[in-house]
Amino acid sequence: MSIPLKNAQPTVFIDGEAGTTGLQIREMLANEPAIAVRSIAADKRKDVAAKAELMSQVDVVILCLPDDAAKEAVALGETLGDKCPRFIDASTAHRVAPGWTYGFPELAPGHAEAVAKAARVANPGCYPTGGIALLRPLVDAGIMAADFPVTVNAVSGYSGGGKGMIEQYEAGTANPFELYGLALQHKHLGELTAYSKLTRQPIFVPSVGNFRQGMLVSVPLHLSTLKAGTTVEDLRGALAARYAGSEFVRVADAAEVAGMGGKIEPQALNGTNKLELFVFGHEAKGQAVLVARLDNLGKGASGAAVQNLKLMLGL
């Protein structure tokens, strides 16, 4: 059963609308006349009573806040009783928390309906969006064992690093390329493991390059370590079957991959909510590389939030 709206016109409050993700969500919603966006006065942003009053009036609150602030905002909403709004949390605070629905509608059959009916939706991280999209169909199909020793490599544009990193790159003082997360405790590992249905935590090696936005997530595989007899085309087929008919996720066919000359760049989907999946492989060598391409600020953040919002509002 869907949750009834408080207002004749669906109404949203973006808590943290001045940040990178919040600004992009606001910009996207400017093109959605069916949705009304409410804001809090700049001098009231830390006024708990003013925020609670606004929360009581809107249908959905989108949280674009640090983790602790996001938890505080949800706790505040819960004091409102039957006037508590629904939440979409773009932070990492609730992505594997009980009572929250993971906001990747394409995760599995029927999951978009679960998002639509949810009172609490945790927006996915950008890297896990690509990684889960590649891995979950293989685990569900029995091609990859749940305890498979997965390695995920990824590169993102610098906009994913927040205000400080953006300023460094735009000032020309940052390194042109960096690996990071080499303590192997990246905050995205929990959701990447859980929603890929893996029982063994992957090795995840993220990196940042000197381009503003765009992302590639790649998973190298030896075919002999998968289900016996698995071919490159089996991998592509499992992905294609999962996302057949999807509005936003597309799986490249063998001819397209062959025409790419063994290369792929990260920025082709910038400004969109699209996700493209590719299977590169060498059958004779028994090797494959799965690649996801997305906009880290689109399908990896603000685009996903707006997609989830529209599902929740029945639009």
Can you give a write-up of this model?
33% of the residues lie in helices and 21% in strands. It is built from ten helices and 13 strands. The protein has a seven-stranded mixed beta sheet. The protein has a six-stranded parallel beta sheet with strand order 2-1-3-4-6-5, with helices on both faces. It is globular. The relative contact order is 0.16. The model has no long low-confidence stretch (mean pLDDT 94).
What is the element layout, followed by pairings?
Elements: E1 11-15, H1 20-29, E2 36-38, H2 48-57, E3 60-63, H3 67-78, E4 86-89, E5 101-102, H4 111-117, E6 120-122, H5 126-140, E7 151-157, H6 162-171, E8 177-179, H7 189-195, E9 203-209, E10 215-222, H8 232-243, E11 249-251, H9 254-258, E12 275-282, E13 287-294, H10 298-312
Parallel strand pairs: 1-2, 1-3, 3-4, 4-6, 5-6, 7-9, 11-12
Antiparallel strand pairs: 7-10, 8-9, 10-13, 12-13
Number of strands: 13
Number of helical regions: 10
Question: Terminal Cα separation, in Å?
Answer: 15 Å
**What proportion of the residues form beta strands (DSSP E)?**
15-25%
Mean pLDDT: 94
| Main beta sheet | 7 strands, mixed
Overall radius of gyration: 20 Å
* Helix-strand pattern: EHEHEHEEHEHEHEHEEHEHEEH
Morphology call: globular
Strand order of the largest sheet: 8-9-7-10-13-12-11
| Helix content estimate | 25-40%
Low-confidence stretches: none
Counting helices, strands and paired strands, the structural category is: alpha/beta
